[in-house]
Amino acid sequence: MIVKLGGFGYSCNTYLILDKYHILIDPGMYANIIDEIEKYTSKIDFVINTHCHYDHVGVDHLIEEIYNCPIYIDDKEVRHLKNADHVVLAELFNSKLIPPKEVLPISELEDVEIIRTPGHTYGSITILYRDGLITGDTLFAYGVGRTDFPTGDIIKLRESIAMLEKIANQRDIKHIYPGHGEIGDRRAFQYAKLFL
């Protein structure tokens, strides 16, 4: 089961997968996400970040501390999250990132289907879960993520979305769980083409 949490203000949508593992995807930037999590579970096995921007990773350190769980991110973005450097864009949100104590590369994570989807950032990922794609800021219900931030690349984004569309058709994906806004469906790929 996937539960959508958060999504308030500038913070991202947070997703909680309750299955064999309790997985928190993109905790966001507000501590009140913990109250929402507690409505469903008192255990988080691990966190997956779809990319390293502050609005997705801002409270990683709190989740790590409260639930004693590892934090995963694409291998290319481990150093950005660990060092809280300019690529995380904390200053854009008038904030400062407190990095988690331990950040692990997504390549070390098993039992979760990860698709590398560079474009919004060079380490953006999508998680395939049952009949859904959790796309972070790669693909929204009615658009795509920006590519004008550090490590963004519009050509890579175009390629990633084309690849996701192919996978969505092959795997009969029904739901697109984006990093911001409403949950969508495969029509999201048609809307994306208007921006690419």
Automatic annotation (TrEMBL):
Tell me yes or no: is Metal-binding among this UniProt entry's keywords: yes
Which Gene Ontology terms cover its molecular function? Answer: hydrolase activity; metal ion binding
State its cofactor: Zn(2+)
Keywords for the protein's UniProt record, in alphabetical order: Hydrolase, Metal-binding, Zinc
Q: Which domain of life is it from?
A: Archaea
Q: Which Gene3D superfamilies match?
A: Ribonuclease Z/Hydroxyacylglutathione hydrolase-like
**SUPFAM superfamilies of this UniProt entry?**
Metallo-hydrolase/oxidoreductase (SSF56281)
* Residues in Metallo-beta-lactamase domain copies: 11-180
Q: Which InterPro entries match?
A: MBL_Glyoxalase_II, Metallo-B-lactamas, RibonucZ/Hydroxyglut_hydro
Q: What is this protein called?
A: Beta-lactamase domain-containing protein
From which organism does this entry originate?
Methanocaldococcus villosus KIN24-T80
